[in-house]
Amino acid sequence: MKAEHYVGGVFRSDGASFPLIDPANGAELGTVPEATRETVDDAVVAAKAALKGAWGAAGAEERAAAMRRIADGIQARFEEFVEAEVADTGRPRAFAETVDVPRAAGNFRAYADLLYGRPERAYTTRIPGWSTGTGEALSYTVRRPLGVVAIISPWNLPLLLSTWKIAPALACGNTVVVKPSEETPSTATLLARVIDEAGVPDGVFNLVHGHGAGAAGEFLTGHPGVDAIAFTGESATGTAIMRNAAAHVTPVSFELGGKNPALVFADADLDAAVDGTVRSSFTHSGQICLCTERVYVERPVFDEFVERLAARAKELDGYGPMISAEHRDKVLSYYRLAKEEGATVVAGGGAPTFGDARDGGFYVEPTVLTGLPETARTVREEIFGPVCHVAPFDAEDEAVDLANDSPYGLASTIWTTNLSRAHRVAPRIETGIVWVNCWNLRDLRTPFGGVKASGIGREGGEYSLDFFSEPVNVCIQI
Ligand SMILES: NC(=O)c1ccc[n+]([C@@H]2O[C@H](COP(=O)([O-])OP(=O)(O)OC[C@H]3O[C@@H](n4cnc5c(N)ncnc54)[C@H](O)[C@@H]3O)[C@@H](O)[C@H]2O)c1
Ligand SMILES: O=C/C=C/C=C(\O)C(=O)O
Question: Residue 91: which domain range?
Answer without folding.
Answer: 5-256+454-477
